[in-house]
Design a protein that fits this description.
By secondary structure, this protein is an all-alpha fold. 59% of the residues lie in helices and 0% in strands. The protein is built from four helices and no strands. The chain is elongated, with a radius of gyration of 12 Å.
Length: 80
């Protein structure tokens, strides 16, 4: 959870959103989507971008989803 929140904050800067006081980091990834990703990762149910696309309603899934999958695999490597 913490790693995704950190990633989300970094993406705010990378995407040029700066310190958006109204939406904040949810502009990049909503809390609801973040929680869904964490739940799926804990259950080892997020193996690839297609699954992320199917399971999470997120407007940046095509442009940033691969970064999420990489981060998830870092903390939850595929089961043998």
């Amino acid at each position: 959870h913490d790693a995704l929140e950190k990633w989300r904050g970094e993406k705010m800067k990378d995407c040029g959103f700066g310190d958006d006081d109204f939406f904040g980091p949810q502009l990049v990834l909503t809390d609801e989507a973040l929680d869904r990703i964490v739940d799926l990762a804990h259950d080892y149910k997020l193996p690839d971008l297609k699954t992320l696309r199917d399971q999470v309603n997120w407007c940046y899934v095509d442009s940033l989803g691969s970064e999420i999958i990489t981060l998830v695999k870092e903390f939850f490597p595929p089961l043998p």
